[in-house]
Amino acid sequence: MIIVAVSGGTGSGKTTLAKKILKNYSNLKVNYLSLDFYYKDYSELSFNKRSKINFDHPNSIDFKLFYQHISKHRKGDDINTPTYSYKKHKRLKKTNLLKHGDLLVLDGILILLKNNIREFFDLSIFLDLDSSKRLQRRISRDNRERGRSKAEVEERYLKMIKPMHNKYVESSKNFADIILNEDYDFELIKNKIDQKLYGNNQKNKRF
Fold first, then answer.
1. Distance CA 117, CA 119 (A)
2. Torsion of the alpha carbons at 176, 178, 183 and 186, rounded to the nearest 10
3. Is the separation of the CB atoms in 192 and 123 below 8 Å?
4. Which residue, 4, 6, 8, is CA-closest to 129?
5. What is the pTM of this model?
6. pLDDT digits (tens, 9 = 90+) for 162-173
7. Could you state, in order of their start, the residue ranges of all structural domains in the chain?
8. Is the pLDDT at 203 greater than 50, yes or no?
9. Residue 161: CA atoms inside 13 Å, Cβ hemisphere, count?
């Protein structure tokens, strides 16, 4: 199994790229997993208190569970991954069965932060986009998918997202195999993944 990790700040297009990779290799057994699914379980707190948690800080992520799951999955085991409600700010009771496959694509703003997790990756990508453009995308997404106002998103961005990006996310791009801007060439990524999947023997491609 090949593992590809996609990182970058909020609104950089991580999930869009991840889905594009999955679609391109739909002839294989492909899976997707977001680090966002591994927010710690704060269900014991009130909604008001959960809403004030800085989810862009590394302490909000259950890296231990994520490491255990990826380690098992890499060895060939199926795993039951957590699910998370962004509207309610809490982990849900149901889990998703992730069956072992040929290609696993991971994404998350902090996916490159931990050395022991980076060791799992066959290829890592960082999407490096202008902060103003990322903010506008975040406003649009949170309004559309999470029912949050522009003012709410801007306040969270200035108080939590931007400081955490500057402290943790920006520097993590130094660990990426590829750093891309908004006008990246997908063929570059595809060629890199092809090399990991098939090596130099193109006859092994399963099309």
1. 5
2. -120
3. yes
4. 8
5. 0.89
6. 999 999 999 999
7. 2-196
8. no
9. 19
Contact in structure between 61 and 38 (CB atoms under 8 Å): yes
Q: Quick check: 175 and 110 in contact, CB under 8 A?
A: no
60 vs 39: CA distance, rounded Å = 6
Architecture of domain 2-196: 3-Layer(aba) Sandwich (3.40)
Beta bridge partners of 95: 82
Pairing label, strands 123-127, 178-180: parallel
Query: Each residue of 43-83: pLDDT tens digit?
Result: 899 988 998 899 999 999 999 999 999 999 999 999 999 99
Residue 188 DSSP SS3: helix
- Reduced to 3 states, what is the DSSP secondary structure of residue 83? strand
Structure tokens at 153: 């998103």
d(CA 47, CA 56): 18
d(CA 49, CA 60): 14
